[in-house]
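User: Can you recover a sequence for this backbone? Please restate the input before giving your answer.

Assistant: Of course. Working from this structure:
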């Protein structure tokens, strides 16, 4: 039995195999939007991600200033990796908040896990980075 593959078929199979096997880990994307241009913090003192508080609610026991809205996406690179979790999104939110010097991320919201053109699964998270003033 003999198989005759065209050159285009061989290239397509090679490309598909490379794309399927090329990823080794998840990847993520993040974005920070300041509340407005006048409220931007001029000097940033990064904090430790482990010390950043995350809550889906507002914080009423502290007064704070808003540093900006944070949006992150954690992606699953290949079909063989675990689906992104809320814990992965939480860590990415804390890392981005720490870069801004935030004490907390409030009003945290999560998207749904879904497959996209560049990922076998992704999970979004959003929140507002705040710095305590008292």
């Amino acid at each position: 039995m003999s198989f005759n593959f065209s050159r285009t078929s061989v290239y397509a199979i090679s490309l598909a195999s490379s794309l399927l096997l090329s990823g080794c880990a998840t990847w993520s994307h993040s974005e920070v939007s300041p509340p407005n241009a006048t409220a931007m913090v001029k000097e940033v003192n990064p904090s430790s991600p482990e010390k950043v508080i995350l809550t889906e609610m507002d914080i009423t026991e502290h007064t704070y200033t808003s540093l900006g809205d944070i949006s992150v996406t954690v992606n699953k690179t290949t079909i063989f990796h675990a689906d992104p979790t809320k814990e992965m999104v939480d860590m990415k939110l804390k890392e981005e908040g720490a870069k801004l010097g935030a004490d907390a991320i409030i009003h945290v919201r999560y998207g749904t896990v879904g497959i996209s053109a560049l990922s076998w699964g992704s999970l979004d998270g959003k929140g507002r980075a705040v710095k305590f003033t008292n």
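That completes the design. The longest strand covers residues 119-132.
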